[in-house]
Structures are given as C-alpha cells and as structure tokens.
Amino acid sequence: MSLNHVRPWRDIYRRKSRQIMVGNVPVGGDAPIAVQTMTNTLTTDVAATVAQVQAAAEAGADIVRVSVPDEASSQALKEIVRESPVPIVADIHFHYRRGIEAAEAGAACLRINPGNIGDEARVKEVIKAARDHNCSIRIGVNAGSLEKHLLEKYGEPCPEAMVESGLEHIRILQDNDFHEFKISVKASDVFLSAAAYQGIAEATDAPIHLGITEAGGLVSGTIKSAIGLGNLLWMGIGDTIRVSLSADPVEEVKVGFEILKSLGLRHRGVNIISCPSCARQGFDVIKTVETLEHRLEHIKTPMSLSIIGCVVNGPGEALMTDVGFTGGGAGSGMVYLAGKASHKMSNEQMIDHIVEQVEKKAAELEAAAEAAE
Distance between CA atoms of 299 and 38, rounded to whole angstroms? Predict the structure, then answer.
C-alpha cells in the first residue's frame, strides 16, 4: 500500500497477495514491487550473459531472467547463477527437462508456460525438481501460446481463456502441494492484457508478475508498457514487473523504475523534473537534462531535481524538489536547495555545480538514513 494522506488522490491500495521468495527477493505481500528484465545474449556465452546480468543489476534490476533452450544452456546456467548478483529466473519452453536441469543448476525460479511445457505428468516432474531445490515457479500464460483446447473453446485468445489457463495450472501446482508460485497473463495487446490481469487478480491471491509481452521498440514499447502496466499498478495490481522492449535490457530496467517512480511505488536515483523548453528558456534545457541524466546515473539515493528553463514554473517546481535550477537572464539562473532560492549560478558552470549539489544532498540523505537505523 502506498499512502499519502495529505494528498489522498495519490493513494494506491495494493491488492493483497501472499508472499513468496525468488531467491532472496520477497515477492508479493507488502514487499516492494520488484523490477525484472531478461538477457538477450546466448546463454552459452557465459561471459556476455553475466556481463548483461551485472549491468541490469547495476541499473536496479531485482531479478533477471535467462532463457534455457537446450542442455548446453543448462550447463552454462550453473556458472551464471554462481556469478550473478541477483536471483536468476530460468525461462523454460517446450522441454520440461530444461526445467529440471535449471532447478538443479541453482535457478531461483522457473518460468514455465502451461501452453507448451507438456502434459501434467511432465509438469509434476518439474514441480518435484523445484521443491527439491528450493526453487519458486512462475506460471507464464501468454496469449500467443494458449493451449489448443482453450482456443477451441473460446475461438481466439481472450481474457477468459487466459484466466482459465492460469487457474488450470495453479490447480496442478496446488494439487501437488506446491504453493511457491507467481503468475502472469501476458499479451501484446494492452486491452487483452489489462482485462486478463484484472480477471486473474480477482481469482487468486498468488503474487502477480506484470508485463505487456512483445511491446515493441524503445519508444513505442515504453509507451505501450506505461499505459498497460501503469493502469494496472494504479489499480493496485502487480508484485513484479518486466517491461519487454526490443532494446538493451538496461533500458527495460530504467523504464520499469520510471513507471514505478511516477506512481510513487518505488524510489531509486534522481527523479528529474524538467520542462520541454520554449523561446522563454534561459539556457539549453534539452541538452542540459540529457547531460545531467548521464552524469547522475551513479546516484542511487532517491531524490528530486528540477531543471526549468524560465521563471514561469521554475520557482514553483523548485519548491517541491531537493535541488533545482531555474533559468533567468544575462547568462545565469537561480539555484534552489530544499525548495528555497539559494544563490545564482552562471549557465556555463551550472551543470558541474548541479552535479556537485546533488552528490552533496545524496550523501546527506544517506548519512541520515544510516543514523536512523
């Protein structure tokens, strides 16, 4: 639950779900919504895959998924798990033995697709391996690979078919006394995904992994994911998220965090509030923000920075940020600290000075947090 009683119109009441563990990451219950991504390297290229996992973790990923399409990948997974700084989810399709091998290799979670993993007997073997190796399971229903009998029943992928698929697989896990699972019901269509997720949220208390599958490239996929995931999160649905982009996995993590930050559900790094710029700007806002985004990537402490081109909205935005800069005239602008006008700074020195002020404020916030522990 995210509450702000001063501004009740910002309150989000999270759906109550039971909590499971994905490695050392709690998922569901009152745990923070976890951000996930997936590697796109060849899993058998251990060095490249580990490097991508580490880059994603540095960007803030709580969990990383790795595809395990063949036996050689299962072997590589052992080393990847050993070197990963975050829990690894093994992505399993078609070959149930890959699921068994992944559990044995140390995967924290198995993602299995009920539409292509095989009959119930094979699923039971995967469940046994997961239980024996303290491994959770994600039921990954996908509109593009629904079971044949459901397509025959409903005629096409639809929310009802996706929910029924998920509940059928939940039954198999529960019949085998396995309860460490979460579920997703993804589609590339935002409307279909949203409806399916609302349906599954009402039908089970299992933790829910959100995603709009095959969302597209960086720009179009970000927009589609922000609409689909943002609305579900706003409704309180979702315990983990993955933004699926045809882009670097680090970009998926960044977008995921930005979606959560925009709703006040997770806070990490510098939240830059900036104007789109216009003829009134006292400095090059777009270039400045682009530079600051890069220069401040190393800051992990949650804080806010306003970069506004002129005094129309600059002072007002600065009132609500930790550090701010508002463009003025004669080649300089006003620096705001803790919402108050502090001192003037030239445009030429402004970027270095802002970075210095943000780093100083981050250090203060970190020290205060440590003192409070």
Answer: 23
Q: pTM of the prediction?
A: 0.91
134 CB-near residues (< 8 Å, 6+ apart): none
| Token pair belonging to 355 | 């970075």
Q: How far apart are CA 136 and CA 354, in angstroms?
A: 44
Of 91, 114, 87, 116, the closest CA to residue 101 belongs to 91
Going by the DSSP 8-state scheme, the letter that residue 266 receives in this structure is -
For 351, phi then psi, to 5°, come to -65, -50
Rounded-to-integer distance, Cα 218 and Cα 57, Å: 19
pLDDT tens for residues 329-338? 889 999 999 9
* pLDDT of 1 higher than 50: no
Q: What percent of the chain has pLDDT over 90?
A: 89
Residue type, 308: I
Q: Which two tokens mark 77?
A: 């997974």
How far from the centroid of its chain's Cα atoms is residue 26's Cα?
Answer: 14
User: Is the pLDDT confidence value at 340 over 60?
Assistant: yes
What is residue 280's DSSP assignment? T
For tokens 């540095």, name the residue: 58
CA dihedral angle for residue 40, residue 20, residue 267, residue 278, rounded to 10 degrees: 50
Q: How far apart are CA 279 and CA 372, in angstroms?
A: 46
- The residues near 43 (Cβ < 8 Å, ≥ 6 apart) are 49, 66, 67, 68, 69, 73, 76, 77, 80
| 216 vs 22, higher pLDDT | 22
Tokens of 341: 């006008």
State how far the Cα of 235 lies from the Cα of 195, in Å rounded to an integer.
12
Share of the chain above pLDDT 70, in %: 98
